[in-house]
Amino acid sequence: MAYIGKTPTQAVRQRYVFTATGGETSLSGADDNSSTLVYTDGEYIDVMLNGVTLISGTDYNTTTANTIGGLAALTASDVVEVMVYDVFSVANLSSYFTTARVPFFRYDSSVANIPLSASQKVPFTRFDATSSDFSLTN
């Protein structure tokens, strides 16, 4: 599966930081910043222990949903950083295009939301001041 990611305004990755109290062999739930660890695919995660990158399948596993497991028992004050990369599937775009709306700035500076459907006509004024409609296709 290819990695594409989200737009920069939505971030490309999510960073979680956990500080161990001692003895933990798995991490899940809220991190030090109260962000809850969530991931879609365990293949798109990097885990670092005190700045050292761990090896998936050897040093940790992601076999339990939204949990970093299989860690050697952590020592108090160990810092585990988890980088979760968003997975993007082109197949999921069809539902977006049938329900999304496009903001359209009109000549009078107002904004109209135009649904993305094949039957929708968009008013358009050309540079020579003539106007016409064009159709959206999806």
Can you walk me through this structure?
This protein is mainly beta. It has one helix and ten strands; from the N terminus they run E-E-E-E-E-E-H-E-E-E-E. The strands form four sheets. Strands 1-6-3-4 form a four-stranded antiparallel sheet, with no helix packed on it. The protein has a two-stranded antiparallel ribbon with strand order 2-5. A hairpin with a 2-residue loop joins strand 3 (45-49) and strand 4 (52-53). The longest helix has 7 residues, at 93-99. The chain is elongated, with a radius of gyration of 23 Å. The model is unreliable at 6-11 and 88-94 (pLDDT under 50).
Structural class: mainly beta
Work out the helicity level.
under 10%
Number of helices: 1
Biggest pleated-sheet summary: 4 strands, antiparallel
Strand adjacency order, main sheet: 1-6-3-4
| Proportion of beta-strand residues | 25-35%
Average of the residue pLDDT scores: 75
* Poorly predicted ranges: 6-11, 88-94
Concise structural overview:
With 138 residues, the protein is mainly beta.
